[in-house]
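Cross-posted from the bioinformatics board.
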Amino acid sequence: MSDAVEKLGMPKWGLSMTEGRLVEWLVEEGAELAVGDDVAEVETEKINGFVESPAAGILRRRIAAVGEVIPVGGLLGVIADASAQDADIDRFVEEFQATFVPEEAEAEAGPVPETIEVAAGRLRFLRQGEDGEPLVLLHGFGGDLNNWLFTAPALAEKHVVYALDLPGHGESSKDVGAGDLDFLVGAVEQFLEAQDLRRVHLAGHSMGGMVAASIALAAPERVSSLALVASTGLGEEINSDYIDGFVAAERRRDLKPVLELLFADPGLVTRQLVDDVLKYKRLDGVDEALRVIAADAYPEGRQSRVIADRLTELDVPLLVVWGREDRVISAAHAERAPDTAQVHVLDGRGHSPHMEAAGDVNRIMEEFLAGVGAPARP
Amino acid sequence: MAREITYQTAINEALAQEMERDPTVVVFGEDVAGGMEAPGEDDAWGGVLGVTKGLYHKYPGRVLDTPISESAYVGAAAGAAASGLRPVAELMFVDFMGVCLDQIFNQAAKFRYMFGGKAKTPMVIRTMWGAGIRAASQHSQALYPIFTHIPGLKVALPATPYDAKGLLIAAIRDDDPVIFFEHKVLYDTKGDVPEEPYALPFGEANIVREGGDVTVVALGRMVSFAQEAAEALAGEGIDCEIIDPRTTSPLDEDTILESVENTGRLVVVDEASPRCGMASDIAARVAQEAFADLKAAPRMVTAPHTPVPFSPVLEDAYVPTAESIAAAVRETAGSGAPAPA
């Protein structure tokens, strides 16, 4: 990388992030970095995340102090080759700090969620990206479209990305009818119909993976590819402490340990994340919706439907991503994916690798989607 | 969908949504239908400040203007609650409680207990409180400690539009009498509030800000003052944790104690007068339950023990400020046992 000096900047995770607080440096000054290495942990209003190295080189300077609040785009550190002169690095820092202007908090409003009425009720979705084959993201049990806050902006560079609130979730209608898989699948199909999305890439996390897979099995001609992140449907086992705990928790102290099961690193669960989930859980109808869905999908602590065998018949490119330390659905389920699937099990990550290892998962999904688009070899 | 609305609109929305959901919810009080300068109830101003505006026409027969007789209509609310309705009575200013206190503390608060648990009293008394609008000593008091003192009553004290809507819905659905305190200076403050109805459980404090050096417990209007103080103190290297109990009865002692366990230092901010108030109550609870964790004596920031003055200069000096809170935090941070090296 010659003498190029690279900025390690404060990333922007999600639409509302304007600044982040440096929690800790994960590497020493002078450490050698590869692209994608975790360099620092940053806390935002919503969630904690890891800042990844944008370049290969040596971490020459740690500019931000632990505890310091830095605006999005602001300087955390400097990466350069060993050959870069200290004076050049100092000049880089000096020039950057003299000219850097943080973006105004409200200056770019960015995309805002929309709602649409379908037979299954009101559905909220967030559309990002201008061009490319549409990609629809489906969250898991108790989640919402914001679970894709690290994923959607990255994938929106090459796709029109729709993140959806499933019925009973987020700001979609809380009436889930029988609350069975058919109802959820029907709602997503109605959404695709209403938005005139005839062929899409589908990605789903946990329960959303099962919904996505069911759509692909029912209408493979409408699905360009299927990405399953720590999905249900590959085996019977599921940690009922998570499902039952999530449904039952009414207070912060009950909910926090349950949400911690979503991550390998429980420190990622911030007060704001717990408060946001509680605000959702308190809405009229949510408790009932979650109970109805859970009773159908996870009766007596088991998954009621396993479709691993049927996936082998599916003629749609398939990606399976899991965190090795998943405490909700064992990563062993990844092995039950068909041989044709591309499988990635990420070490040191839990049930939500798309949040906990966003950079890795984004790269995996970008490469997978690019491969799907490539012409078949003769 | 969450959007930004005022504290006042949040309260109005909570009333409207509960009246929509439950036909037994009725609203009554002085001028809740008509109001300021109204020729009659058809004007439907909706109270002196318009908090109940729009409900009169939307729910005919369920929004009643009463005579200026708190003892009559608060007593009627207790009786209506005991016989199947869910009344929301408005006591225009909490300062008027003196004329209807027997109905509240000897009747409503006691029914469940004196009738062997067979009676319930699902009534809410909404009431305005607090200094800051030059309304003098009979329209500015912070009298929630008196109601908090009485077993059988629940007391809510929202500081934000989100809390106002969720606590009022929870109050209306509660089977016990709830005294619901609305700070008049907060009516115009704005915040994110979901459109859908939601109930915020009583007895769960809000951790407004996380911090490791000093626990600041603040109530009502004092919460935003504490936040202002914490911002200033952060620049001095003092990291405050701010806890808003949201309800004083029941009181979420656990959240306060857990915080003090971590910080070892406590400042309680209360707009009420200092004797037998929430500040002294919380400080005493912490002193008893977390004595071993305390590194310094708990401090109280309250109004002085005097009626609220009418003079604007004196009224401003009467109410605790961000500066007086910051000063108390600095004092406790700099006193007592030094932090272990």
